[in-house]
Amino acid sequence: MFQQGMSVLGDPSKRIPYGALVWGLVGAATCAAMIPLEPNLLEEGMILEIAQRLVHGDHLYQDVVAFTGPLPFEALAFLFRIFQEEILVARTAVALLHGAATASVFSIARQARRDELSHLAAAITAFSAILLFPLFSIYFYTTLAVSLGVIASWAALRGLKGGRAAIVAGIVTALCALCKQTIGAVLAAGLLISIIACAPPRVRFRSALRFILGGIATAAVTLGAFAVTGGLDSLVYSMVELPLSFQSTYNSPFMNFWPPGTFSQEVRGSQAFYLPYFYTLVHGGWGLTPGPGITLLTQTLYALPFLAMVLSLLRRWRTRLPAATWIHLAYLVAMISNIFPRSDWGHLASVLPSAAVQVILIVPLPHERNRVRKGIAAGLVTLLALVSLLVGAWLYRLSEPPSFGPRVPLRVVSEGHRADVIPHVIRYLRQHTQPGDAIFVARAEPLIYFATDTRNPTPYSGVIPGMPGEQQRVIVDALETTRYVVMSDIDQPVFTYYRDELPRVQEALERYYRIPDDFLRPGPNWMIVLERAVDRGATRVDLIDIAEEGTRWIRRMDGSLAPGRVFHETIGTIQNHRFLPFLLGIRGGGIDFDITIPDNAVFRSGVGYPLIGTGAKNVYRLPEESRMVLSIKTDGHFRKIGEIRLPANDGSIDRWLPFEVDLSEYAGTRATLRLQLIPSRPVRPGELGWWGSPRITIRPSPSSARMDRRPDTPASAGSDHR
Predict the structure, then answer these.
(1) 497 & 593 share domain
(2) Both ends of the chain: CA-CA distance in Å?
């Protein structure tokens, strides 16, 4: 069936492939133009941080936890040893690889069409570095896998006659798998099927065997290298067992295609992660209300890869497809595998160029109208170039000078990076640490380690789904001798909720760490530094953990109490405080807890943080000048034991105020604790009140409360000593 449906590749041209060389240079130059733009906190930051650790003696998968292939980390560490530990070294390698990928796409397209539209296919690949910015200009394992995958496809096409190119195809396919396992595995299967189906019968077995041997040889070298260092078991666990263990925690809902122009309820909660990057760059991320037009465009882009596959099969029904078309289709299928199980825009962007190229490979144009074909191709390539030029110029105009410190000399583009939030964190750490000092970046910003030239005291570059037990133990132990922690307030479903993923770490942060005054300032503060301080005592009763056992109530206009409803919307952690929310009546409301007071107990909480947003995109403001009151009932009557009157919110500083009450006189008593908000004036029913991380702790002994395990300050504040 395959042989009847596919033509056999003819003899390759002996001429110098000037077209491929020119497009390769264009692709490299286009990607290089984007190199100076936009630091990447997570994807690129993770590889930079791990590569730096490998240079300094750590072993991948043994001292550092990762769940993708070793090639991106080891290759970058190799480049760092040859040149220097600079982010531009990594991005230059990406630009060169992007150029090679562009040349490969042109060569494949030339074999598939043999007309001027092959230039359009190359242009799509070359200009993707601008039009799908920033994915194809950062050093990231998916970026490398995308380029290596199309180079492997070109080599497979060259190897259909049984030559050595089939071995090269097997090697590069294996290298692709050593970047991103799923892409490499699917690509290997697809290219092998294509080689068997498309190669001439007399060399079919030889071509397939050489492809397989190339892959096996690469795998054997990799396994041998890790066996020599004693890391073979860790390699297998990290590349196979670990990724399979957290598939369910890594999933995200796929984009709905119906109804057109409307996001489904599942997608709507994280819609900013599905929308095109340029749309969120212009309109912001949180709280977006995209119209039906941009929603329909997003749905169309998500449908494009599948549409390209279907159109290819329909095209086959009408005519035979060249071997190059089938091989590129195998590559497209491998790229499609990257949008499962996580289907956000970043994953979709990796497959869009190959989907568009596949459509170009199969679109029919009349062969007898040579001038028409040339005009269409020239017009589309020119249009694509002009749009890319305009987009690139707009990105540079939007960008601002580098602000992430001397180790990250990149212009900042996105709104979150242009604000003085991350730069403030980097400046503070550079002023208060020495090179090589240990800090812990809790969430998804490992670039902070590289930018500040500090050391990660744990094996984890971020939250690793699916292994909370071991991760919590290691991190909590490391925190005992770690002075600074970087925490970002990005709790939401796509990034997970830190307090739920690693509750023991959250407990340690609340117990031992405080926010330096430098971060209690006006303006955006979604990323902060926490500094180790006095021990506030172990938590005996966490009132948020037992919130379902609490009795909620509201106060009516006449002062009487009525049962209150449970507030079901999810609120992220802010400034190292979790929220205990409750709905208010006209005169306030609260929540009661029946508990036994332990010995040496202290009630601790934060109060007064003025404004919150929920996972449902609703915004609530705390009633100004309210009184936060803690009362206790032991003998039938409530007695007020603590109160703070909240100041009027002038919009200058959003912060928590500490609320602490000694409960030692009630030790051993069964009591009801009442946490309430009393507004200074009537409020609209349905408004919200909240306490921050309310808990009952055990007062620590004077010796354990000392900061005796905290490192001394290595440098005076206010000066960057590096």
Answers:
(1) no
(2) 67
pTM attached to this predicted model: 0.92
Q: Is the pLDDT of residue 705 over 60?
A: no
Number of domains the chain contains: 3
pLDDT for 251 equals 78
> 639 in a domain, yes or no?
yes
Which of 325, 342, 364 finishes a domain? 364
Q: For residue 328, tell me if it sits in a domain.
A: yes
Is 585 found in the same domain as 490?
A: no
User: Using CB atoms within 10 A of its CB, is residue 459 exposed (0-12), middle (13-18) or buried (19+)?
Assistant: buried
User: Is residue 595 assigned to a domain?
Assistant: yes
Name residue 411's beta-bridge partners: 37
Share of residues in the chain with pLDDT > 70 (%): 92
Residue span of the structural domain in which 489 resides: 419-532
Helix 141-158, helix 165-177: angle, nearest 10: 160
Nearest to 49 by CA among 427, 455, 408: 455
Residues 494 and 587 occupy one common structural domain = no
Instruction: Check whether 713 has a pLDDT greater than 50.
Output: no
Residues facing 589 on adjacent strands? 554, 677
Which run of H or E residues covers position 141?
helix 141-158
Quick one: the chain helix, strand, coil %, rounded to 5? Answer: 50, 15, 35
What pLDDT, in 10s, does the model give residues 23-61?
999 999 999 999 999 999 999 999 999 999 999 999 999
